[in-house]
Structure formats: structure tokens, C-alpha cells
Amino acid sequence: MTQDVIFQTLGTLSGQSIGIVTLNIEKALNALTLDMVAAMQTQLTHWQNDDSIACVVLQGAGEKAFCAGGDVRAIYHASIANPNTITDEACGFFTQEYQLDYLLHQFGKPVLVWGDGIVMGGGLGLMAGGSHRIVTERSRIAMPEVTIGLYPDVGGSYFLNRMPGKTGLFLGLTAYNMNAADALYVELGNHYLPSDEQEPLFDAMAELNWSQDSQRNHQLLSDLLTTMTEPHLATLPDSHLQQFQTQIDLLMAGDILDVHHQLSTLNTELEWLQRAQKTALAGSPISWHLIFAQAQLGTELSLAQCFQWELGVSVNCCSIGDFCEGVRALLIDKDRQPKWLFSDVEAVEQSRIDQLTTSPWDAKNHPLADFT
């Protein structure tokens, strides 16, 4: 039986080692299962405390994806069997996924993420936690949760609200697929390399003069990547997000009904914007409200507080939201005809959104209470 996640160490000339994590379910686009999350949490915690490990690399098997998100089918089946109940499956998966993401954000040592191919949902949660986030000409990065009755979680409440203008709200509502230039513009990526540079990069990393000084190691890796990236910057595609920032801000201006009206009446010949418009308008009306609630968090909350807020909302979505129907339509029956709980954005009752955004736990008993 092949392992769903593979851990290796790469020796270097300095005597230090590099820990390499490979997500290894190529046929499922390396989607994260709970077992993979648990295994990574254990191994990464070990490497974090191991003085011989100078740096960690996360990559996906195959050429199609780093990671297309979380494998949510187990949560779906548990939630369908126990309606209006917060299940152990939902609570366990989201808790452990956010713990892993938070570990990466707080890792201390350099974490390089090779964000080649599809990076979506839970995959972006992993990538956002990396200190050195590489995008390639094949990178396709998105938060498509609006299509399954969820909202951009895995730290999205933190990083979307820190993007230029209204870009974060736009990405949440439309599931727009970012290319490498878009990702660099919104700072989800911070280095660009062609996909065929992975092996030369690893070879060069093995020759760096690593030490046990994390700060120095960060600088070493940054300098190497800056040098390797430089010759390729001229080949970067255009960033629609950057080019059309003003129009995006106007499209996303106002309250939820204003934005829904603006998107509904938008008449554009830009194909990428037509796709974004279509996805947003077909998305869950509950998701729309949650994405607006998330945008209103602004930049006040710490990363820890964002994950704590998200955990409550995510488990609530599985029990009293549109999540099960969204997953059924997209992943289970695959009919792509979700029957959302509310007919449109205007029909959503505020009481439902209040329920969804009210944490099931008090601060002391919160599963992520130890995040600081």
C-alpha cells in the first residue's frame, strides 16, 4: 500500500538536513485526509524540535496539484447521518487541519512550499503557512468554498482581509483562479520559478551553508530564491487582479445586496470575469453572508483568533448550513445542481447567520484555546 504522505530527509553539505513532505495521492490531486493531517502534525512537530533539521519543504506528487483541498466526504457522511448536530468527524477534521496550518505559520524554521499546479482550499491553508511560497507557470490558486456552502477558511479570515482593496472579498465570492502573478500581487506567493526548476532548486539548497540559526537560514533561503527567480520574472503572465484592481473595488463596493446587484447586472467581455461572475451567482447564499461577515472582521483579529472564529463557523456550516448540499452536488452525486437552503442572498434570515457565526464553545473549552 502506498503512503498518502511521504516524509524524507535530504542531507546537505553543511551537515544539517532538510525535511521533505510529499502529499502523495496524485489521483485525488493530493487532497488532505485526516490521517495525512495527523501524520504531518506529528512529523513536523518532531522536525521543529530536531536541531539537525534546518528547513522543511512541502510538495505534492505529480504535475497537476500541490493540494486541491481537504477530503470532506467523511464529514459529509457523518453530517448527513446526524442532521443538526455538530459531529465528531467535522470537529476533529477542522480542529486538526487548523492546528497543522497554525503550526506551519509558527514554525520558526524556514518552510518552503512548492505551490505548483492546483492549490485550493486546504492546500492554500498549508501554503499560506509557509515562509517561502513558490508559484510556477502552472499554479492555479483559489478558495472555491462558495461552491460548497462553506467560506474561505484555513486562515482566510486573516490573509484575505490583508489583501489590496476589496481583492479578498472578490476572491471569496467568486472562487477566481489566480495565476502566479496574481498570487505574487496578493502575497500568497513570494517567489516565482518555472516548474522545471524544482530539481536545480533542491540541488542548490543542499549546497547552502545551513546552521542552527533559524534567522540566518531564512535569509540564506531568501537570497537563493531571489537569485534563482530573477532571470524568470520577465516571463510572468499579467495579473488580472492587479490590472483591474479599481474595477474589482467598485464591483465589491457597498453592502451584500449592492454587491449582488452589481455582479448580477455586470456586462463584461472579459472571460475571466464572466467565469468569476457565474461562480459567485451560483454559489450558496449562506456562503455569501458568511464571506461578508468574514470581511467585516477586518484586520483586528490575530491569526490565532481568526482560526478560533473559523472553527466555530466551519462546524456550524456542516450541521445547520449549506455544506452538505454543496458537497453532495459537487463531490457525491456530481449533478452540480445544489438546492440551497435559501433561494437567494436577500432571502437569507439574519438569525441563521447569527447562529452560524456563534461559537459552540466558550473561550475556556474551545478546541483551539491553546492558540496564542
In short:
The protein contains 17 helices and nine strands.
What's the overall geometry? globular
- Averaged pLDDT: 97
Q: In whole angstroms, how far apart are the ends?
A: 39 Å
Q: Would you count the extended β strands for me?
A: 9
The share of residues in extended strands comes to 5-15%
- Spatial sequence of strands, sheet with the most strands: 1-2-3-5-7-9
- How many helices? The count is 17
Element-by-element helix/strand order: EEHEEHHEEHEEHHHEHHHHHHHHHH
What is this structure's SSE topology?
Layout: E1 5-11, E2 17-23, H1 34-48, E3 53-60, E4 65-67, H2 73-81, H3 88-105, E5 111-115, E6 118-120, H4 122-128, E7 132-135, E8 140-142, H5 156-159, H6 167-174, H7 180-185, E9 191-192, H8 198-206, H9 214-229, H10 240-243, H11 245-251, H12 256-264, H13 271-282, H14 285-295, H15 303-320, H16 323-332, H17 350-356
Parallel strand pairs: 2-3, 3-5, 4-6, 5-7, 6-8, 7-9
Antiparallel strand pairs: 1-2
Helix pairs in contact: 1-3, 2-3, 2-16, 3-4, 3-15, 6-14
Fold and architecture overview:
The protein has 372 residues and is of the alpha/beta class. It has 17 helices and nine strands. The strands form two sheets. The chain has a six-stranded mixed sheet with strand order 1-2-3-5-7-9, sandwiched between helices. The radius of gyration is 20 Å and the shape is globular. The protein starts with a strand and ends in a 16-residue tail after the last helix.
